[in-house]
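Hi R.,

Here's the chain you asked about this morning:
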Amino acid sequence: MTTLLIVDDHPLQRMGFRMLVESQPDLVVLGEAENGADAVRRATELGPDVVLMDVRMPGVDGIEATRRIIAAGGRSRVLVLTTFDLDEYAYAALRAGASGFLVKDAQPEELLAGIRVVAAGDAVVAPKLTRRLLDRFADQFPVGDEAEAGADAQLDVLTEREREVLTAIGKGWNNTEIAERFHLAESTVKTHVGRILAKIGARDRVQAVIFAYNTGLVSPESR
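And here is the predicted structure, written out as tokens:
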């Protein structure tokens, strides 16, 4: 069973998410929270597998709540839910340690699939959303001289193939696209991705994308 904590300041939104989640035999809602401070407290008390986190809430918002939950070092992973616009809050939440990003008007099956993907330890941000997010916030990634400091040491742990795969991840490619580009089996790509995440200390694919930009391996111009 995958356990969840639903965080949203709108009661009807929480009810809708709960009804959807509880329609699935493998998902269970442990509790709800109406603001970020309550979310941090409830996440500590309940230890859910996944926290469905709204971003814009009064008081402690979803970004700060995500940061605190991740910093606590617990088992919970955060799936950010926000409006259709890929605003700065979504980017900030990913930087704070969220494992994924979905818009609130996603189809029910997309949300359910996203919950399961995040619970399994991967990221739920679809490649097309990754590209849109990076397109909008590319200027916030340090590149060039700013990114060179320390980059070589971080990247030296990767093999040449792993650098190629990380570059592709940074460009928003999914495993199928990477496999086709490098003539590899998808299972081999998954193995490469797992090793890359371990070597660079990334929790998931989203953090790998951010790493690729922060080290200058991928730049807005190279995309």
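One quick note: The longest strand covers residues 27-33.

Cheers,
M.
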